[in-house]
Automatic annotation (TrEMBL), chain A:
It comes from Gouania willdenowi (Blunt-snouted clingfish). GO terms for cellular component: cytosol; early endosome membrane; Golgi apparatus; lamellipodium. Residues 398-527 form the PX domain. Residues 45-62 have a biased composition (Polar residues). Coiled coil: none annotated. It comes from the Eukaryota. This is Sorting nexin-1.
Automatic annotation (TrEMBL), chain B:
SUPFAM superfamilies: PX domain. The lineage of its organism: Eukaryota, Metazoa, Chordata, Craniata, Vertebrata. GO terms for biological process: protein transport. This is Sorting nexin-5-like. The keyword Transferase does not apply. GO terms for molecular function: phosphatidylinositol binding. Pfam families: PX, Vps5. SMART domains: PX.
Amino acid sequence: MATSSERSPPPFPDDQDVQDSEEVQGRESDEDDGEDLFGSPSDPALTQTDTSPEPISDSSDLLMTPPDDIMKDLLIEPISIQAESKPVAEVIVEPSEEFDDLTNNITAAAEVTEISLDEPSDEFDILGSEAEAQREEVVVVAEVSPAAAAAAGGGGEVPTSVTEPPDEEMLDDVEQEDLEISPAPIINLGGELFTSSTTTVPPASEITADLLGDFLGEAPPIAEPKKAAPAAMDLFDDDGSDLFADPHQIKSAKHPQRSLFEEPDEDLFAEPLGAISKKTTSKESKSVTITAAGPLADRSFAEPADIFMEEAVVTAPSISTSSSSIVDPKTNGVHAQEATDLFAEATVELSLDSPQTERKKEAMTKPPAAAAAAAAASQQQALEELDEEEEEEQEDKFDINISVKDPEKIGDGMNAYMAYKVCTQTTLAMFHNKTLTVRRRFSDFLGLYEKLSEKHGPNGFIVPPPPEKNLLGMTKVKVGKEDSSSADFLERRRGALERYLQRVVNHPSLLQDPDVREFLEREELPRAVSTQALSGAGFLKMLNRATDAVSKMTIKMNESDAWFEEKLQEVEAADQQFRKLHALVESLVVHRKELSGNTASFAKSTAMLGSAEDNTALSRALSQLAEVEDKMEQLHQDQATADTFNFAELIADYIRLLGAVRGSFDQRMKAWQRWQDAQTMLQKKREAEAKLLWANKPDKLQLVKEEIVEWEAKVTQYERDFERVSGTVRKEVLRFEKEKTKNFKTYILKYLESLLQSQQQLIKYWEAFLPEAKAIA
Amino acid sequence: MMMTEENEVESTLSVCGHNIQIAEVLKDGEMLSFLIVSQKLSGTGEYHVHRNYDDFEWLQHNLFCQEDVAGIQGVIFPPLPAKAQVNTAAKVMKQLGFLSLGEWQPYCKALEVFLQQVAAHSILSKNKAVEVFLTNPDSPGKQKVKKNIFNRLSQAVDGMRKEGHKDVDDFFQTARDHNLVLTNCTKTVTEKLLEVVQTEQKIAVACGHFSAALLLCVEPGDDPNKQAFSKVCVKLSEVFESMKKSTTGVSENDVSTMGLGLDLESRYQEAIKEMLFRRTCKLVELEHARRNAEKAKPVKKAAMEELRKAAETEFEDISRVAKEEITRFEAVRVKMLQQAMVQWCEKQLLTAKECADQFTQHLEVFRGMNFK
């Protein structure tokens, strides 16, 4: 029986050629599935079969009448058909082994039968490639399936005789309507088939229907007429879900099938089925489809039609749970046992598929499954990566120290620029000297960043960003205002540049970049150009815009990988937090500066009061106090500086770095998008191929075939790229997090030390003053 | 900061002057009600009376209007702080300066010092109103205090004219010049210290905000990376919390010692100024009387001469009292300022040491953190 075979197809139909081992594994699991699944539901189904005879007869009567309407009529009494299918299904379960034997015996169709039992994928591939071969196979399948049915004990002598004629008819029809595939003829066919089959062997009708659906790319028309009647669901729950799930998943590239499943599934199969059908559109998800289809089909047999819909919804999520290795009773434990393995391997692919389906606004139930599967995969992956990380950690300690100092204004007026001395101390062999000193202007730093981000950004590396241009601050410097704010600006920038370079060389991959070495070593650098885009607020805006775009994109994609979704949310949250912290520290710095100023004027007025005071002791004490306050002013000033450089600047760095982190997520999105686009293109090419196939234009076909090969390669390449970028981003983010903690600790330590020092200084000042105050008589 | 001169006082009060305290302040609608506790000289009992600002004004008015006491205008009246209410207007708050800070503790302290000063004053403490104010449980009548010569507003009107009047006595001339300089300087210093305190308060608030914001950075989860960073955040939050505490402490020290000291000094300088001004007014009056007596026609000569003599006596009384008061006060204010500075210094030292201890602990915690 075709139905039975399709119910338990291996998880990797497409990979059959490629991944034999997996297939075996999958098949084993599915056989188990079958037994387990059918073991329980068979009893209720059997009871139903008792009642079935009457409906069958009705339907057969109906079928005898006008062929055009047959389907509709049939649909009115779907239960009867379902009832028919149920017994078949049960029967099939047990003889599945026999099937294998049978198929082995059938020499000519050996391959095909095997496939038909497991999955019709190969058939369809063959169909896709050779139209004529397909016909032969169809015949073979037809032969096999009735044979199977016979073996199952359902029909006994019935199959061959009954089924063959319909096949021939079918083929005839196919030939006739090669190009125009109108629903009517198929329905006729179906009608005929049904009439013939129903009288003798119910399964045969199903088989033929299946065959129709599968072998004619035009299965959709069948579905469409049935749309009208809701009952069609039942009919197609049995045949449809099983049959169509397999065929279209294999022929996913083929247009007709997609159309079938895109349109009708909503009406016919309701959403759950739709989800399955959608999954099948992409190759990689086939494994899911199969497993999903399995339970669905099983359930449909076991449960009444109405329930089926609800159940289907349930089963879909249950797949997700099973994939994350949680035993779900609803899937009858089958998937719980085996599916985990399946999913563990399938996960990566799944995670990639789901967004696609999602994009199509289909398959509401699918994403969780994919997400969970992805999570399972990511856990494994993460573990592996952690190990790698540990190893890298050791190599991470580079003996390289960079200091940026001596900012110097070169030139006059608005053409002036700041040059900094970049001193490198290192024992690394890759450098010619242990100490390197070069002069670099600000735009050189920006140029380095541009080069690095261009080269390493697309690979998912987090390239540390330099401080942005600051027109206002720089203009002040250029104008030559030697006030505290411009000095503060220069010091801030100098520190930021130093930290930026240190971060660059601390990155194991970036350190190896020739541009980095050149920047640190070479006497003269070619003038960096087009750093304008990075100026000040514009730069931040650009980052923000990029991140906005990313977040928008991720809304569509985020379910693909829970880890990335979570991380991105964390990064966004951290960004908000850091911005808030930055604002708070800046206000703290403002207050400290204010305090410093106020203390200064307090000291001044105290001194004046002291000089106005007649009492000499009091006057003296007041003057002393003024001195103490003067010193305190300096302490407050230093404290403000410490706040600035230990926190405000560090946090500002991290706001920039978080932008870079989001940038790396963005790059991952881009890689994903490219891959998706390639897949879409490949699909289009395949559809074109299918059309040409039917149009019988071999010359163009060849071209399209070549294109398909080309695009297949691209899809593989882009997929690999995406995997690589994802891996890198993941590693980079983990590294970033570690560095963040270490960095903060380092700066907090410095800060605390400075705090302690200033407190101790304060104590000294007060202790010195106390005797003076006491000395006032 | 209590200034006590019990030795000079032949106390007519039934309470111990330097032990007067304002135990608590109650909000009675808009009004502030102060619980004044003073110890009985006889035995161990205490007087508890509730007084509001109007009662203080009544007391001050009664002190001002002691017509029968010779040279009363030469007294440096302890300065009563300006009126404060629950919802005092921003302008008045600004005028109150240090006294407006906190939950009225500085204000209570200032009132307390006022009462102590009154009770300790050799002339003023003899007034019955003081005894009534401190011991009578009933409110001493709500009669409206008439605006009198001592009112600052009226003083301002012709102040400018008479302030520059050349003094006949070098001592007072010097005192007046000196007072003028000191008043300005003290006022400036007080204002500057107030600014420092307010900035310190802002810093404390900013530290608090930063500390709270850091706690929001804590990420849940078992990820060791996250836990490590969360730990850093929590610890840093603690650092800023203790920084907030120490800064708050510093600002409180500023207020409770130097701030109040300077505020009192500033108000006292104003009081001296007023006293000197009253004397100068009397001097101008006397000079008028003298001129009138000289120019007077024989008919009025006797009456004018009488007036001149009266004015002369009064001026001499005032000058005598004023001289005593100035000398007395000079010692008092030096001691007061010294106390303020010593206490300030000691408190700041204490706070700084506590703070340093805490930072040391935090530092050790951070040094102990090991991240891979």
